Amino acid sequence: MKIPIQKVEEAALEIMRRAAIEIPADYKQGIQELQKKETGKLPRFVIHAMVDNWEAADQDRRPMCADTGLPRYYVKVGNNASVENGFVAVERALRHATAEATVTIPLRPNRVHPLWRTDHNNNVGLNAPEVEWSFEPDADWIDITTVHKGGLFGTDYRMLFPGDGIDGIKRFVLDTLIAFGKRGLACQPAIVGIGLGGSKDTCMQLGKQAACLRTVGDRNPDPKVAELELELMKLGNSIGMGAMGFVGSGMVVDCHIECGFTHTGGMPISLHTFCLSSRRATARIHANGEIEYRTDPQWFTPYMRRETVEW
């Protein structure tokens, strides 16, 4: 049974709307827990104002932030899935849904050519929106996740070396978060995603996925990596900064780490912050055309994290 391409576009448009307007429950709960522990008066005021803004956006059905970020997609395809007109049609549907969402939600048209500043006013252009693909065995559905993430700041990369060890990782995370807070390069309290290992491009990719595609409270299945996630979160909240860089104690809502096997001589690391308006939504389109919506992307499956030659 082929998934109707019209259902793909319908789902993509709907998750664009949900991501722009609705705060995922896991992030909202994480912010509420952080607010209880926040020691700074100004950060508490900022968080209170943001929560009010989220509620107003939900009631009015309009975007929660004036900067609606750079819409992008993550598509997980079941190995047994079949789509009407094939996967070129899927990509076309995602681009069309982006253009439609920009007009109807509306989203701010943020995409321009880097040199000529050409703006089609629909967030579609060369290599935009980004679409990343993954696959899942023994499934006949397609998962589509959209993430609306800012495209200017809140990201850094460094090539560490094996001798730097865990202490080097901590130093990089502290240096980066302090710089972000002082210079206004992040919109915290944020979910911090860390990519560790892989090649340079994979490292950046893993860090962004760790920030945007895992829910607050989710821990890496490797116990030692999970322990490091909690340690780095505690470290990030000990530097004396809270919401929007004001003096406080709540800079990190959660910390997620994803790893990739890397060159024996290096230990690349990237850090990404998913801002105070953490915007994501997922649709699962079944073979019969039924659509289910959720806020947990469920991107990092055991198959995604496999290490061996065979699955």
Write up this protein.
With 311 residues, the protein is of the alpha+beta class. The protein folds into 2 domains: 5-22 and 64-150 and 280-294, Dihydrodipicolinate Reductase, domain 2; 151-274, no CATH class. 37% of the residues lie in helices and 21% in strands. The radius of gyration is 19 Å and the shape is globular. It is an enzyme of class 4 (lyase). Residues 10-283 form the Fe-S hydro-lyase tartrate dehydratase alpha-type catalytic domain.
Salient structural properties:
about 300 residues, alpha+beta, Dihydrodipicolinate Reductase, domain 2, 2 domains, five-stranded mixed β-sheet, four-stranded mixed β-sheet, 7 helices, 9 strands, about 35% helix
Mean pLDDT: 95
Main sheet attributes: strand count, strand direction, barrel closure: 5 strands, mixed
Report the span from N to C terminus: 26 Å
The poorly predicted ranges are: none
